Amino acid sequence: MIRLEKRPTPSRVWAWATPVVAVLATMVAGGIMFAALGKNPVEAIRTIFWDPILGEYAFYYRGQLLVKAGPLILIAVGLSLGFRAGIWNIGAEGQYIIGAICGAAVGLALYPLEARWLVFPLMIAAGALGGLLWAMIPGVLKTRFNTNEILVSLLLVYVAEQILAWMALGPLRNPDGSGFPGSRNLRQYEAAANNELIAGSGMHWGVVAALIAVIFAYILLSRHLMGFHIRLAGQSPRAARFAGVNPERLILFCLGISGALAGLAGLFEVAGPAGQISIDFNTGYGFTAIIVAFLGRLHPIGILLAGLLMALTYIGGEAAQATMGLPAAAIQAFQGMLLFFLLGFDVLTSFRVRLGREAHA
Amino acid sequence: MFGSIDPLVLIASLMVASTPILLAAMGELVTEKSGVLNLGVEGMMIVGAVAGFITAVETGSPALGFIAAAVGAAILSALFAVLTLVFLSNQVATGLGLTLFGLGVSSLMGQGYNGVRPPSSPRVTIPGLSDIPVFALHPMVYISLLLVVAVWWVLRSTRPGLILRAVGESHDSAHALGYSVRGTRFAAVLFGGACAGLGGAFLSLVIVPQWTEGMTAGRGWIALAIVVFASWRAWRVLLGAYLFGGVTVLQLNLQAAGVAIPVELLSMSPYLITIVVLVIISSDRRRAAANAPASLGRSFHASS
C-alpha cells in the first residue's frame, strides 16, 4: 500500500525540486505525445529546448527569448502576489488587452507629436492605469458585493476581446490604412515606439520593466509589511484577521498590482513586438503567465526562471513548427501538461510517500 | 421587429441555445455538491466537442459521437480527480490547468476537421406534436431536461444523493460515518466531466455544427457562474441556463436585424449580463455563504 503522510512543515528541498522533476516528466510525456503525432520525439525535444539556445541558428532565437519572456514574467509576478494571498485573478489576458488599448490610444491621440519624453511615459502610465482599472472591476465587485473574482475576471476577458475588435475596426483604425482593420503601426512612430534597446538582444522596455517588477516583488514579499500580510493571508486567513490584516485592502491591492503589470505588458507589446492594435493582438500571454507563476513557485526569482523556460517552449515550438511541421497546438498542450505534472508532483512538498501499512503510534 | 417571429420558434431556439450550458452546469452542480470545485469545465467542454465531432464524422453516427464526448471529457476529468483527490493538489490551480490543457489538446485533436460537416441527427417525430417547434427539437434538449429532474430527485431524496451532500458539507463527518469521501468525489467529478462533454458535443454537432478551435468561447465559465447564480439548486440552474440562452438568442436576433448597436457590444452582452446576475446573487452575503457546500474547494486527507 502506498499512502501519504503529512510532513510537519513543507519540504524546502522538494519545493524547489518539483519544478525540475515536472519539466523532466513533461519532456518524457511530451516526447510520447510527439511520437504519437508521428514525429521523432528526441529531435522534437532537442528542437524545442536545445536548438534555440545552442543550435546553429541560435543567434536569431536568442533575441526572441527575452521578447517572449518579458510579458510572461511581468504578468506572472503580479499574479503571484494575489495567488499567494488566495486572490485569484485569472483575467490577466483581459487586463493585458485593455492596457494595450489605453496605452496605444494615448500614443495615437498624440500622433504625430515628436516629444518622446512626453509621449512614451504618458503611454506607459495609460497602459498601467487601463490594466489597473480593468482589474478593479472584479476587485470592487468582490469587496462590495462578495462576487467571485475568479469568474468575473475571466468573463471580462471575453468582454475585453470584443472591445479589442471594436477598437481595431472602429475608433483606433489607421486613417491612412485604406480601410484595413488595425491601428497605425506604433513602431514606425518614433516618439511612441518601444524598440530594442540593444539590437538583436530582444531587450526592450518591457523586459526592463519585468526585471524591475521581479526586484520590487522580492523586496515587497521579504521586507515589507504588505508582503507579510500577503503571505499571512494565504497561509492562515484566520491568523491574518487577528493580526489586523484588512482583507478588502489586500484584495484591491493584489488585483490592482496584477492588473497594472498586465496592462504594462500589453502596452510594451503593442508599442514594440506587435506594433499595432489588431483583432488578433492578444496571443494568450495572460493565461500562460498563470502556468509561469506556479512553475516559479509564486516566488519572484522562480518566476524569472520559469518565464524564460516558458518563452523557450514558445520559440522552440515555433522552430519545431517550421522545421518539423509540429502543430502549433502541440505546444499549448505541452505547456498545460507541464502545469499538471507540477501540481501532481507538488504532493511531495507537503506529504511523505510511505510504503507499507500504517504504523500505529 | 419580432412581429414576424413566432414566439414558439423563439422559445425553441432559446432551448437549443441553452442546452450546452445547462448540461455543463448540471454536471458542475453535482461536482460542487460533493465539495469539489472543478474550474476545468471549459476544457472538458471543448474536449467533448472535438471528441464527439471526430467520432460522429468518422462513424457517421451522432449518437456514438455524444457517447464518445461524454467518455472523452470524463477521462479528462479523471485526470483532475486523480490530481486533486489523490495527490491533493490545489483545486483552483488544477482546474485552470485542465482548461488550458483541454484547449491545447482539443485543437491538436481537431486538426484536419476544420470545415467538415458532421452527420445530422435524426429527429424524433411524434405525429401531431412535431408540428409545434418546441416539441421537434434534438433529443439531447429533452435529455438535458430529464437530467435536471433526475439530479434534483437524486440529490433530494435518495441515499446516494444524501451521501454526496454529506461529503460536500463536511468531509470529516462523512469520513467518520464510514462513507468513502474520495470515492464519492471521484464519481461526482466524472459525472461532471461527462455532462460537460455532452454539452460540448451538442455545440459542435447540433448548434454550430462545425469544429473550430476554441469554439466553446467561455460557455464553460458561464456554466460555472450559473451554478453560483443557482445557489447550488437544480431548478435554478435550469432557470439560469435558459436566462442565458434567452440573452444569446436575443442578441443574435438583434444582430441579424441590424439594430444600430455595435455588434461587439451585443456579442459581449451575455458575459456582461452573467456578471450582473452574479453581483445580484452574491450581494446578500449571509445567504450566499449558507447555500454553498461547506467543504467546497477544500482538500481531504484522512489523517489530517
From TrEMBL, chain A:
The lineage of its organism: Bacteria, Pseudomonadati, Pseudomonadota, Alphaproteobacteria, Rhodobacterales. One of its GO terms (molecular function) is transmembrane transporter activity. InterPro entries: ABC_transp_permease. The chain crosses the membrane at residues 12-37, 57-82, 94-111, 117-137, 149-169, 203-221, 250-268, 329-348. It is found in: Cell membrane. This is Nucleoside ABC transporter membrane protein. Keywords: Cell membrane, Membrane, Transmembrane, Transmembrane helix. Its main location: membrane. CDD domains: TM_PBP1_transp_TpRbsC_like (cd06580). It is a multi-pass membrane protein. It comes from the Bacteria. GO terms for cellular component: plasma membrane. Pfam families: BPD_transp_2. The keyword NAD does not apply.
From TrEMBL, chain B:
InterPro entries: ABC_transp_permease. The keyword Nucleotidyltransferase does not apply. It is found in: Cell membrane. One of its GO terms (molecular function) is transmembrane transporter activity. GO terms for cellular component: plasma membrane. It comes from the Bacteria. Pfam families: BPD_transp_2 (PF02653). The keyword Cell membrane applies. It is a multi-pass membrane protein. Keywords: Cell membrane, Membrane, Transmembrane, Transmembrane helix. The chain crosses the membrane at residues 7-27, 39-57, 64-88, 94-113, 134-155, 186-208, 220-244, 256-281. PANTHER family: ABC TRANSPORTER PERMEASE PROTEIN (PTHR43370:SF2), SUGAR ABC TRANSPORTER INTEGRAL MEMBRANE PROTEIN-RELATED (PTHR43370). This is Nucleoside ABC transporter membrane protein. It comes from Silicimonas algicola. The lineage of its organism: Bacteria, Pseudomonadati, Pseudomonadota, Alphaproteobacteria, Rhodobacterales.
